[in-house]
Amino acid sequence: METSNNPTKKSPTDQFKEELERVRRQLKELYPDALRHSVDTVDKLDQRTPDDWIPRHLEMVRLTGRHPFNCEPPLRYLRDDLTAAELHYVRNHGAVPHLSWDTHRVEVCGLVERPTTFTMDELLALGPLRSIPVTVACTGNRRKEMNHVRHSNGFNWGSGAVSTTVWTGVPLLNVLQHCGVELGQRARYVCLTGADELSAGAYGTSIPLIKAMDPFGDVLLAVGQNGKPLAPDHGYPVRLLVPGWVGGRMVKWLARVEVSENESDNHYHIYDNRILPPHVDKEKADAEKWWYRPEYLFNESNINSVITVPDHGEVLPLTGNQQERYTIRGYAHSGGGRQVTRVEITFDHGNTWEMCELRHPFPPNWAGRSWTWTKFAFEVDVLQLFSVTEFGVRAWDDSNNTQPSALTWNLMGQGNNCIYRVRVRPVHEGAPGSFGLRFEHPAVPGMETGGWMAQEGAHLSGGIPASAAPPPVPEKATMPKGPSRDDSENTVHGSNFYEQRLKKGHKEAAAMDHARKIGMSEVEKHTKEDSAWIVVKGRVYDATKFLDQHPGGKAAIMMNTGTDCTEDFSAIHSERAWNLLSRFYIGDLVDDAEADAQQEPRMEHSESTGNLLREHLRDRARVPKSGDEGANKEEAPVALNPRKYLSVPLEEKRAISHDVDRFRFGLPSAEHRLGLPVGNHLFVRARIDDQTVMRPYTPVTLDADRGHFDLVVKIYRANENPKFPAGGKMSQYLDGLSAGDKIDVKGPLGHFEYLGDGEYELKGKRGSAKQFGFMCGGTGITPAFQVMQAILREESEQPLEVWLLYANNTEGDILLRAELDAWAEKHDNVHVWYTLSHPPSEWKYSSGFIDEEMVREHMPPPGDDTLVGLCGPPPMLEKACKPSLDKLGFSENQYFEF
Q1: Using CA atoms, how far apart are residues 623 and 635, in angstroms rounded to an integer?
Q2: Cα–Cα distance, 145 to 141 (Å, whole number)
Q3: Which of 599, 596, 617, 615 is nearest to 607 (CA)?
Q4: Nearest in space to 333 (alpha carbons), one of 365, 306, 296
Q5: Is 37 in the active site?
Q6: Tell me, what DSSP letter sits at residue 644?
Q7: 687 in helix, strand or coil?
Q8: Residue 621 and residue 309: Cα distance in Å, rounded?
Q9: Helix/strand/coil for 267
Q10: Known catalytic residue: 681?
Q11: Cα dihedral sign, 542-547-551-553
Q12: Can you tell me the distance from the alpha carbon of 589 to that of 168, in angstroms, rounded to the nearest whole number?
């Protein structure tokens, strides 16, 4: 495509319209198929979602259910040289922002001489506009192949997450120069942020300044695609385009451009678009801070090739077929401006290779950099296909990069570019005596089943050390479409889906003669920490070795030992838990009579090793040592039973604000105490829409309060938050309760317990502190509130110092504020401070996210007598609280998450 250099003085908007029209004329002449896919209707799957205003192509393959919209085109559409904009793959983390050309602004700030906020017309005036064809590939393209080996953190991209279109825009170089940016000064990065609203903040990332200002790099602030203004899904009204780089760096709905000394600290820059080594799982990445190592950033696209002809499932008939030759076709591309120089094909598993015919649809730019894909073709004798079991392709570029033979698994499931292999299988189809060849690609996108790796991928190592590899992952079952959250790459699926993942592990255990037939009476004996058994879906698991590793503490397992906990396990556990479960499989649950008929190996366990369950629970329900809190506590009957759900009636519901209620639930008698140690929580269970739903809650009452307990709950109603249109299941259920209605509760659970007089138990270890700090966000205030309340009820000559830093969006979101302010006013040892994302005028506390300065001023100093508790949204804890504590000198044993 050519760049327009029309010297006629016209308005920026008129020039933009003329440029789009010029591009459309060229495409209509050269690539008419790219203009034949206009859409003007809203898909019924988008109805009742935040995106119900966006027309979309009905053939796009959805990868994450109804919402957010993540999709790729059927592979057959990538046979064309130019992709229709309506068929370009889409990666959205949440709802598409509804932006207007006239009101949208782009701020350029940071280390610039002239900080400026541009209107869209002002951006256009910094042209001339350029229109260039660019191939954009997602970092997760071909991820499903990787997920067949071991499930990554990402959803199932097929091999269609790559597209080539003509982009129109203003060079970013022009914008930066207009604002007075020069190379060679302090500035090293350009940090870019979108206008989308996600749970972890707007999407953002960064690119090196030298890349942004490369006069040969063609980095654009793109405003058009294939001769039209950008579609909402592709970043309307403006997005970043970095040719040769991965799609994850090309921020859509661009709102802020900041020139900085440092790369972006945005959540999505840190926790996405990285290729970590194969031995690094999520726990290791979090614990050892692998996310912050710049050497694992995925920036330039790597070399890749994919076969598009034949299609997956295509059958080449041989009976009565006069065709002697068959043409295999596909696409290949590389990154960084490197051009593909050859594509090779093998029919004998890589022993020999033959050269494919290449065609470069678009020439390199005037500096010799290639931004688009290459198409390849190879004619093969049909009889030769009959004699092979597979064929594969690999590409080479002008730096002699090529594709590896086998994939290397990584946590994010990104950068898969191993040799693309298509299997050939003889089939009998159609009329009697007919015969043909069926072609199978390695994987099919999204939630569909199929592909040869569905059966064989679990036997591949993926480069994972044997010591680090979990049980293999079988094929993913089809999942129902439904709304999901913006963190949909980590979507939790139904238990039927995860049960499929257990089958192979169970078969292997049985084959090793580890499996047994076990009766329920035998299971019920194993309720101790030295022998902890559970039953899930008719199978028996020995969870003893996992007790100390359980993220929710060993009590969460111990409360279910000796029981069938299928319902509870299915209601709350994630994919990782289902993957781990098969490691601990020891047998199948049968009738006691059938189990007695089988001669079982003797399982020895000593009464002297480990506490009995009742002793463990009694220790966890210890009372504070001083004050009225402990009076006659041992004589009061305990309501909670960690092994059984307790049904409790609603006695009273009181509205605290428009979206916060305080619920009082009755215990079996006025003398009963709940039996919940300070700092622990309980599970609330309900049957909602034919599904068991469980949520953890911390009461705001203490164990000394007899006959009842209170929950303060924020109600997330449907259609109030566009990010979560369905609202909160449990909170809405509780909101609909009437006096006398019952819920089920079970507990206690938790790994922190305040024992009294500054003493505590954290993950089974005793400690003491003179200063307690709490950093909380939103509804995360309740466990801190409970501990603060217990401390303030104590009678001590030297009261403990208590500090609270409490973050919310608005002043109306602050829970329990009346009580917190009253404590701070009455007690000199209580220090309460608030921060709001959207403060009102005349707000006397902090504004914005928690940062290092807030923590320095409103938390106790680090030391052996200090302990800080954290509870709130993960981005707040991981990006704000923990880094600030680390910088101020807190060691990891001086703070914890409830």
Answers
A1: 12
A2: 10
A3: 615
A4: 306
A5: no
A6: B
A7: strand
A8: 66
A9: helix
A10: yes
A11: positive
A12: 64
Note the pLDDT tens digit of each residue in 817-873.
999 999 999 999 999 999 998 999 889 999 999 999 999 999 999 999 999 999 998
Average of per-residue pLDDT values in the chain: 86
> Which two structure tokens, joined as six digits, stand for 841?
């005028």
- Active-site option among 331, 585, 697, 760: 697
Note if 151 is an active site residue: no
Distance between CA atoms of residues 115 and 125, nearest Å: 17
pLDDT of residue 525: 84
Give me the residue label for tokens 């938790």.
Answer: 750
CA-to-CA distance for 27 and 29, rounded, in angstroms? 5
DSSP string covering 756-793: ETTEEEETTEEEE-SEEEEEEEGGGHHHHHHHHHHHHT
CA 884 to CA 872: how far, in whole Å? 15
Which listed residue (138, 356, 418, 871) is catalytic? 871
d(CA 365, CA 639): 75
pLDDT digits 0-9 by tens, 176-229: 999 999 888 889 999 999 999 888 899 999 999 999 999 999 999 999 999 999
CA distances to 442, 459, 829 from 455, rounded to whole Å, are: 10, 8, 63
Residue type, position 285, single letter? A
Q: Which residues of 68-100 are buried (b: 16+ CB within 10 A; e: fewer)?
A: bbbbbbbbebbebbbbbbbbbbbbbbbbbbebe
Cα 242 from chain centre: 24
Active-site position among 681, 708, 831, 858: 681
Question: Among 279-283, 349-353, 582-586, 705-709, which is the least confidently predicted range?
Answer: 582-586
Q: What are phi and psi of 233, to 5 degrees?
A: -65, -20
Which two three-digit tokens encode residue 167? 């982009």
CA–CA distance, 205 with 394 (Å, rounded to integer): 31
| Mean pLDDT in residue range 346-370 | 96
70-74, 116-120, 468-472, 783-787: segment of lowest average pLDDT? 468-472
Which residues 6+ apart lie within 8 Å of 375 measured at CB? Answer: 81, 329, 330, 331, 332, 358, 359, 360, 361
Who's near 893: CB < 8 A, 6+ residues apart? none
In order of start, what are the domains of the chain with their CATH numbers?
Answer: 304-468 (2.60.40.650), 492-616 (3.10.120.10), 623-750 (2.40.30.10), 753-897 (3.40.50.80)
pLDDT digits (tens, 9 = 90+) for 654-676: 988 888 899 999 999 999 999 99
Q: Give the model's confidence band at 418: pLDDT under 50 very low, under 70 low, under 90 confident, else very high.
A: very high
Reading across the β-sheet that carries 254-260, which strands appear in turn?
Answer: 116-119, 105-110, 254-260, 189-194, 204-208
Is 697 among the catalytic positions? yes
Select which of 698, 701, 835, 866 is catalytic.
Answer: 698
Whole-number pLDDT of residue 673: 93
Sheet with 390-397, edge to edge strand ranges: 315-317, 436-440, 420-427, 390-397, 340-346, 354-355
From the list 219, 114, 240, the residue with the least C-alpha distance to 174 is 219
Amino acid at 486: D
Pair of tokens at residue 341: 């120089």
Angle between helices 781-792 and 817-826 (to 10 degrees): 30
